[in-house]
Amino acid sequence: MKFEKMFSEIAVGGITFPNRIMRTSMVSGLATEDGHVTEELKARYQREAKGGVGSIVVEAAVVLPSRSSYNLRISDDSFTPGLKELVDAIREANPQSKLGIQIMHFLKISRSGWRQKVTDFKPEDFAVIVEQHAEAARRAISAGFDFIELHMAHAYTLSSFLSSTNERKDEYGGKMRNRMRLPIEVYKGVRDAVGNEVPVGVRINAEDFTVPGTTLLQSTRIARKLAELGAEYLSVSAGSRFEDAHPPPPNTPPDPMSGYSGHRMSPWWWFPDAAHLHLAEGIKKAVHAAGYHTPVVAAGKIHTPKLAEEILRQGKADIIGLCRPLLCDPDWPIKAKEEKENEIVPCTSCNWCLEADSRMEKVTCSRWPEGALVPPMPFTNKQARPSELPKDATLG
Ligand SMILES: Cc1cc2nc3c(=O)[nH]c(=O)nc-3n(C[C@H](O)[C@H](O)[C@H](O)COP(=O)(O)O)c2cc1C
């Protein structure tokens, strides 16, 4: 088989992913305004699962009770039945694919331009944050998910504690040991809640791409600590920080996607392919050198099966994270497995999807037929809309 490594199994804690393609978390805007699962959300994930992806991390589900319109929520028991329906629907579409959910605590923002910072939390808030994650993880397991992913990347709360930009003066900020305190407490709280049988993966920023911000020098230490604690995989991401975001226009909340850091998370078409691979490789080397064999997920403009296979064969990562390419063409895995990679409808990294999210619209792909919420099945290059890239854009 041409892409043998990519279609080999991998053990993640006590479970086995049937192949090494992971659909990384992607907010969809398809939940109800108050965060419940909808038929559209189920249809989206079912369509992706049918394409043969080995594991799916369902989009960041909010663990705290604060308002956050159209984001999926897991902040109280009323969300569990809907999440169970979602799990059942995805399993019906593809019983092999392993299902996780990313759980997320966010920093509040407001239309006045204000944003909450790590320095705004009081010491008594920390136990609450830990409990919110632990409760969310319990709900995820009772909904039937196979694994949990803790969101410690991008602009969110735990990432902001880990970041070198954390200027708290107490034992939760400043030095690296202190910055890791709350994320470690959360990890341990979740581990206690779900036990050792359920894999708990963590997504981190290997690089913030801000001044000052976390670089590999710090993120390798974070990764080693998480491996030592027993995290079952490390998913490597980058960017999407507020620190270099543009000042928002009047009556608009700050947008972490507006600065350079924001442009790194889902690398745009003008970035090289596999733009974050050096970060995943650096994390993997550091973790291995410390004696751990924690699988590392690399993501970020890895758009072709050939490139994905090469990365795996070279041992730079253990799992390939695909987000936009699977949104664009969910049959990417099946087409690769059947060696029909020329039939994949290629994601152009135009970030139509990301911009829809920033505008709080439903996330769709510019290449799908007009008005579609999922691509047709099968989805062919003939059905795809032309690329959204500017006319002078050249790729490859
Ligand atoms: C619309 C959109 C929403 C995203 N939402 C999340 C999210 O909820 N959590 C997360 O960790 N990453 C999120 N990401 C980042 C992706 O998981 C992924 O790391 C990034 O897009 C790079 O991979 P790709 O080139 O395969 O798209 C999102 C990306 C996009 C485009």
Question: Could you give the topology of this structure?
Answer:
Layout: E1 10-12, E2 15-17, E3 21-23, H1 39-50, E4 55-62, H2 80-93, E5 98-104, H3 125-143, E6 147-152, H4 157-162, H5 176-179, H6 181-194, E7 200-207, H7 216-229, E8 233-238, H8 260-265, H9 277-289, E9 296-299, H10 305-313, E10 319-322, H11 324-328, H12 332-337, H13 352-358
Parallel strand pairs: 3-4, 3-10, 4-5, 5-6, 6-7, 7-8, 8-9, 9-10
Antiparallel strand pairs: 1-2
Helix pairs in contact: 1-2, 2-3, 3-6, 7-9
The protein binds flavin mononucleotide.
Residues 24-27, 59-60, 102, 151, 153, 203, 237, 265-266, 299-301, 322-325, 353-354, 357, 363 line the site of flavin mononucleotide.
Question: How would you sum up this structure, described in words?
Answer:
The chain has 396 residues and is of the alpha/beta class. The protein has a single domain, classed as Aldolase class I (TIM Barrel, Alpha-Beta Barrel). Helix content is 33%, strand content 13%. It has 13 helices and ten strands. The chain has helices at residues 39-50, 80-93, 125-143, 157-162, 176-179, 181-194, 216-229, 260-265, 277-289, 305-313, 324-328, 332-337, 352-358; strands at residues 10-12, 15-17, 21-23, 55-62, 98-104, 147-152, 200-207, 233-238, 296-299, 319-322. It has an eight-stranded parallel beta barrel with strand order 3-4-5-6-7-8-9-10, surrounded by six helices. β9 (296-299), α10 and β10 (319-322) form a beta-alpha-beta unit. α1 (39-50) runs parallel beside α2 and α2 (80-93) packs across α3 (125-143). Residues 24-27, 59-60, 102, 151, 153, 203, 237, 265-266, 299-301, 322-325, 353-354, 357, 363 line the site of flavin mononucleotide.
